[in-house]
Amino acid sequence: MEVPRNKLDLRDDPGVLSPPILTQPLYACAKVVNVTGYVPGATLDVEINGAIAVAAFPGGSPAPAGATIPLPAPLVAGQHVRARQHHAGATSTWTAVVTVKDHTADYPAGPPRPEMFGTPLYKCGVRTGVQNLLVGCDVWITSNNTKVGSVSGANNPQGVNVSPAYDTGQHVRAWAELCKDPSPPSVEQIVQPPPLPLPTPGFDPIYAGATQVVVNTIVNGARFTLSRNAVQVGTFPCWGGKCIVGLNPPFTTGEVFTATQELCPSDGPSNPGTGTVQPCSALPAPQVGPIQDGDTQVVITQFVPGSEIKVFVNNVKTGDGSGPVVALTAPIPHHATVDVWQILGTCAGSTVQQVNSQCVNPPIVGDPSSLDLFPVGTHEYSDGQATFDGFTYDIRGSIYYPAEDDGTDQPFNKRLAALGRVPLVVCVHGAHSPTTPSYHGYDYFQQELARMGFIAVSVDERQTDENSDWAGWTQNIVRRAELAIASIGYLQQLDASDPIFQGKVDFGHTGLMGHSRGGDCVIAAAERINLPGVTIRAVLSLAPVNSGANSGKPHGYAFMTFLPAADGDVVDNNGAQFYDQAPPDPFKTQLYIDHANHNYFNRQWLNDDTGGGLPIMARPDHENILSAYGCAFFRNALRGDPTFGYLDNLLLPANVQNQNIHMSYDVAGARIIDNYEGHPITVDNEGQATAQLGGLTAKDFPFAQVGGAFNTSFFGNTTGSVCIAKETVGDFREPLSTPVDLRHSEVRVRAAEVYQAPNIPPNPTGFRVGVEDINGTIAWVDVNDVGGLSRPFGRRAFDLGQGSADKTKTMLSTLRFPGSCFGAGAKNLRITEIHAVHLGLNRADGRPIAFDDVEIVKS
Amino acid sequence: MSIDSGGPSPKPKPIDLWRLPEILELRVRRRHFEPAFRVTTEGKDRLVRDAVEVEIRVTEPFPIRGLGPVLWIGDEPLTIAESDGKKTYRFLAFKPNALRADAPISLSWNSPGARRTETRFRFAVPSE
Dihedral of the CA atoms A214, A620, A603, A607 (nearest 10)? Predict the structure, then answer.
């Protein structure tokens, strides 16, 4: 919410200055460090092992990528580094100490491969961006194997000027090196003719008081010439897109900037674009990311580059720095009001962005699919046949793998292979036209897995899509499983003797991903596979059917399922049945995805299976969900990467429509207070007598498409409780057999707003969770303070139009209630001795709420 | 130079996943499998040698999709079928005693509450 600043009593203490952000990790041999988040114009100190190594470094503008600070000597592993800023007579505290590591601790197969941007490269281009670098490395660009540009001690990203300029047809690559350890080369780019005529440059909004101007619409590698009030101020090379230029004196309202751009002089410049300085009063408030209790920094998602950002917590200045991340001088307290204010040079914004911190509001951090370490080789296999039930199939598919270079049948990456065998992920498509190469539909996912060090196989099961086979339903899916197993068997042959794959595949860490019938099939495959040395450790079942081809109880591995809420084919979201029946072994995760259809996760399945009947996300949004969550899942389950936070809603991935995803998750070792299985509602799992208070009624129901269900909106395969409060405040009390200390634990509850056909009420409903100590003190946390109760995804009209029943669902999702939030809510609560949990219905709307899996989990 | 009028790229032809063909002919017979037919229930295989087969010839093939078709004999669903790959499907009943004589025969997709399309056919118990 944007609020006039003059309506607030913000105490702008000039002595409060945020510690800057020291870009991490730090690696030995780095010649620079990168510092961001400081106030524009601040000076920066860098301390190494207790001594000032760099004093009063002029930070200048923190835009676009902070200060790249040269060090007197390259970093050495084990050194302790920290930084601070000085501004306007104030000095910040030091950042936390960062210990310098050898890069091989994180990148044992060498530095990650550089990524060039913007691409394509054009003839006469003179600058290229390179990213995916280790800060402080050396980076260079070659054209036809000749070095044309370099930077020693690079930032990430890093612009590299090239000379001579590119020429059409040249083969260009970027390279990096740290500690004399070379990265693989970047993807090769072939220089293209210039895109003529060149577009007219534009300007991001310019405000009075600023000293930086952002020119946009710059062609990759072009130079642009900038004029201020018709007076030329210079010509600048740009990697493409946007480029920022610092100027003095500060801008005044009405000034006019002009820019043209040029690639080849013989082609001449573009038409000029103009930008006019707007008054200070037009400067907007910045936009901020999620803020939750205990945060020690605020992420600024939209701000004017080069602006100062001040953060006030309950009117007290707690941060002063710059975007995109401002460190705070104290953690965000419970239920804080946070005001974020933007100052641009001499222009102080007239409004601030005001948000309230929530108990749970996970930060958007990174993209688990973006790890890019190796070139990717591809190999199509077609060798041998297998016969099941009288059907004979060719064993075919595609393999993506980490390679020495990009391309078909490239040698396997030698440095990675020297470290040991590589985990395997096998993808299995579902039923579609047999003339469609469905197995190529996950190539984007295979590519991402391979570049981060997995072998990713997609099995060609088109022959099972032939009508004669497809009609077999359960038996068709069993045969699909057996064909997938046959492909794994074939991979074992490759591993035994193939020139590329010999000794490369770690079958002991195998993951399966299946879609539609393939999603049912991979659970069956995990139950049927009996190949020596193969251990299935992770199964991702995407929009599966449930035919009976497997036990219906995924077990023995980490399990994940995707349920597209707008699935126009597998309309029952049968994956919910698998999730409900899967033990957390060691964990399970379910994504119920609003506005997702069945087909768009597969690039070869072109039609929208809803036929336009439901509002769905764009295809790339579907793919981003599989990429982010699928990579997080397999990285953690097969390789132990620290990506589990994405699987239990502690972190949200960037580039994903997170607002559409409703997660359920469960981990082994949780203390189950009540899962409503195997006992009457009058007692809980710990054998304690429950109580229905305040007019609340609670009753067990099957959460499934069976008789005796509360209504027909439940599509899982479990039993749960439906609570209804007939009075204003109803309460279901669940005692514990022994007290629990919630200081480092949280209460987790699966819950859903029950859909009652035919209408979905316009306003959300909710509930609250209470914890009661041994003195009878109860502290409550409302569901809206931990993310809110998901709304049903309405699809009634669509389903009825298809001749189907209404498939709008009551789909439960997991909500986390950290112990710290209860502790903050009631001063007298003895958080160390909690002996009952309460589910409180306090909305006075009489609407039923479905509950399951009330647990205590260590935070 | 002449000017191309352009126009949007054609979108993929919508596929009606819920379309069901009409049954043109229907025959019921007993079926003996040699070798035995594999039937899987809750992930467990068993071998079956005898079944009742309901063969239908339809106006068009079922559209290939995730869900499968169901042939209903009264309220008994038959989900496992063979096909000639064209327009003939043979739905198999492995519990013949569950089939009631003169029960109406209908088609649907394999989803709870999916609309059943009634046909003009009724089930006749095949001779031994």
Answer: -120
A317 in the Ramachandran plot: left (φ > 0), alpha (ψ -120 to 50) or beta?
Answer: beta
> Quick check: A607 and B15 in contact, CB under 8 A?
yes
For chain A, how many structural domains are there in total? Answer: 5
Which CATH number belongs to the domain containing residue A805 in this structure? Answer: 2.60.120.430
Handedness of CA B55, B61, B64, B66 (dihedral sign): negative
What ipTM does the predicted assembly reach? 0.94
| Other residues' Cβ atoms within 10 Å of the Cβ of residue A345 | 22
CA distance A141 to A124: 15
- A38-63 pLDDT, tens digit each: 999 999 999 999 999 999 999 999 99
Residue where a domain stops, chosen among A254, A281, A308: A281
HSE toward the beta carbon, residue A670, CA cutoff 13 A: 26
| Nearest Cα residue to A271 out of A352, A217, A316 | A217
Could you report the per-residue pLDDT of A474-520, keeping only the tens digit for each?
999 999 999 999 999 999 999 999 999 999 999 999 999 999 999 99
**Could you tell me if residue A15 is inside a domain?**
no
Query: Are A129 and A210 part of one and the same domain?
Result: no
Establish if A13 belongs to a structural domain.
no
A350 found inside a domain: no
Is B15 in contact with A524 (Cβ distance < 8 A)?
no
pLDDT higher than 80, residue B13: no
Interface mutation target, options A428, A465, A468, chain B, most CBs of B under 10 Å? A468
pTM for the model stands at 0.96
- A122 φψ region: left (φ > 0), alpha (ψ -120 to 50), beta (else): beta
Residue A559's domain comprises 376-667
CA atoms of A312 and B48, how far apart (whole Å):
74
- Residues in B lying within 8 Å of A, measured between beta carbons: 12-18, 37-45, 61-62, 64-69, 79-86, 89, 109-115
Task: Give the residue carrying structure tokens 């007076």.
Answer: A231
Helix orientation angle between A443-451 and A619-639, rounded to the nearest 10 degrees: 40
